[in-house]
Design a protein that fits this description.
The chain has 371 residues and is mainly β. It has two domains: 30-114, Immunoglobulin-like, CATH 2.60.40.1080; 118-369, TolB, C-terminal domain (Neuraminidase), CATH 2.120.10. The protein is built from one helix and 33 strands. It has one helix at residues 10-22, and strands at residues 36-39, 43-47, 51-53, 56-59, 65-66, 72-75, 87-89, 94-102, 105-114, 118-123, 129-134, 141-145, 152-156, 163-168, 176-181, 187-191, 195-199, 206-209, 217-220, 228-231, 236-240, 246-250, 255-260, 266-272, 274-278, 284-289, 300-307, 314-315, 323-330, 336-341, 345-349, 355-358, 364-369. The protein is elongated.
Length: 371
C-alpha cells in the first residue's frame, strides 16, 4: 500500500520540506552552529564589457559546502557593478570587490577586469602540458604533453597554425626537443633538440637555443628545413624583431644585444636581462631582470622595458611584486604584458603599471599571448 503523508516519519518529512523550500540539497537554517559564507572562487577574472556570474556557498561546521537561494550579492567598486543575483559586468580595467550576503553572514571576493586575448600556457610539473585559454580563464583546452618540469615555453605560429614548444625529456637532465602542435592537439617532433623557441611574425623562421645554456642560437623553418646556426656561442633567449630584420638576445653577462641579420653586426643595448620580447610595433623590448642576474627559471626579479635603441629603460612591474624569469610576452596591441609572479600569471598595463593578477592561473607558467 502506498503510504499516506501522515505515515511518513516526521523527521524525514521535515528534511524534505526544508530542502524543497530552500532549493538546496542541504538543510539551510541561518542559525546553524559554525555556519559561514564563502565566495567560490574567491578571486577570478572577467573580460572588459563581459559578464560573470558570482557564486557564494554556505559552509557548515562539517565543512560541507552547498548553494543557497537566499544569498544575495553587491559590488563595492564602480568598474564592476554587481546585481543582487550575482551578475557582474566588467566596465573598466582594474580590481573590483564582490560581496556575498545572507543575513549577518558575508564574504568578499575579487574580480580582475582584464583585456580579451588568448594565452598559451605551460604547467610546471613532472607531467607538463601545453594548454590554451582566454585571459579570463574560459575555453581552457589542454593541447599536448610537454615532458617533465620545464617543458612547454610555447610560441604561437601565425593564424590558426598552432604552437611550437619545447618537450623536456623525462630524466634527461634538462635536455629538450622541439615539437609543433596544431590547435586540436596533433603534435609532431620538429627537432631532437632545442629550447625557448620564438617565431617570426610571418612564420618563416623559428629561432631557438640549441640547448638551454648552450649559448648557441639556431633557426629552422616550421617544416624542419633550412636549419642553420646563427650565433655560435655566448648567447641565449633569442627573439626576432616584428619585421624579421633583427634579433634581440642576451650575450656575455646577460647583456641584451641586437643583431642585424643582414649584416651580422651586433649592437649592445646597454641593459642586462633575460627573456627579451619585442613589442608588436618593434619600438620597445620588454625583459626580466633579477638580483645578481640569476638565470634559474624560478629566480625572482622585476619586469622592465627599453626602447629598441637602448634608451629609456624603466621598470614597469610594481615595486615589491616579484616575477619569475619563466615566461614573458606582449599583448597584440602592445598595451599589456603577461608575466609570471610568485603566485599567478599577471597582466601588467605598460603605461600605468596597473597589475591584474589571474588567480585561477597559479599552476601555469610561461604564458605566450596569441598575436
Amino acid at each position: 500500500m502506498r503510504p499516506r503523508p501522515r505515515d511518513v516519519p516526521t523527521a524525514i518529512a521535515g528534511w524534505a520540506l526544508l530542502a524543497l523550500v530552500s532549493g538546496c540539497g542541504f538543510l539551510d537554517p541561518l542559525d546553524q552552529a559554525g555556519l559561514h559564507l564563502e565566495m567560490s572562487p574567491r578571486d577570478t577574472a572577467v573580460t572588459l564589457n563581459a559578464h560573470l556570474q558570482a557564486r557564494a556557498l554556505m559552509v557548515n561546521s562539517y565543512q560541507d559546502r552547498y548553494p543557497s537561494t537566499h544569498i544575495r550579492y553587491r559590488g563595492l567598486d564602480a568598474i564592476a557593478p554587481v546585481r543582487s543575483d550575482g551578475d557582474v559586468t566588467g566596465l573598466a580595467f582594474g580590481r573590483a570587490r564582490v560581496v556575498g550576503l545572507r543575513g549577518d553572514l558575508a564574504d568578499t571576493g575579487w574580480v580582475s577586469v582584464v583585456p580579451t586575448g588568448t594565452l598559451a600556457v605551460s604547467t610546471l610539473s613532472d607531467n607538463s602540458v601545453v594548454s590554451v585559454m582566454e585571459t579570463d580563464g574560459s575555453r581552457f583546452q589542454q593541447l599536448a604533453p610537454s615532458g617533465q618540469v620545464y617543458g612547454g615555453a610555447a610560441a604561437w605560429l601565425p593564424g590558426e597554425a598552432g604552437l611550437v614548444f619545447q618537450w623536456a625529456v623525462p630524466g634527461g637532465a634538462g635536455s629538450t626537443h622541439l615539437f609543433v602542435t596544431d590547435l586540436t592537439g596533433n603534435s609532431r617532433e620538429l627537432l631532437p633538440y632545442g629550447s625557448y623557441p620564438r617565431v617570426t611574425r610571418d612564420g618563416a623562421w623559428i629561432y631557438f637555443e640549441k640547448a638551454s645554456g648552450s649559448g648557441e642560437i639556431w633557426r629552422v623553418h616550421v617544416d624542419g628545413t633550412g636549419l642553420e646556426r646563427i650565433i655560435a656561442g655566448g648567447a641565449g633567449s633569442p627573439d626576432p624583431s616584428p619585421d624579421g630584420s633583427g634579433l634581440v638576445f642576451w650575450s656575455a653577462g646577460l647583456a641584451l644585444t641586437f643583431r642585424n641579420l643582414a649584416t651580422g653586426a651586433d649592437t649592445p643595448l646597454g641593459v642586462t636581462g633575460l627573456r627579451p620580447r619585442w613589442s608588436p610595433n618593434g619600438t620597445r623590448i620588454a625583459y626580466w631582470w633579477g638580483p645578481l642576474g640569476n638565470t634559474h627559471p624560478m629566480a625572482t626579479g622585476a619586469i622592465f622595458i627599453v626602447n629598441a635603441d637602448g634608451t629609456g629603460a624603466r621598470q614597469v612591474s610594481a615595486d615589491g611584486r616579484l616575477y619569475r624569469s619563466w615566461g614573458l610576452d606582449w599583448s597584440p596591441d602592445g598595451q599589456w604584458l603577461v608575466a609570471r609572479s610568485d603566485s599567478s600569471l599577471d597582466l601588467i598595463q605598460v603605461t600605468t603599471g596597473l597589475t591584474l593578477p589571474l588567480r585561477y592561473s597559479s599552476g601555469f607558467f610561461s604564458a605566450s599571448w596569441k598575436p
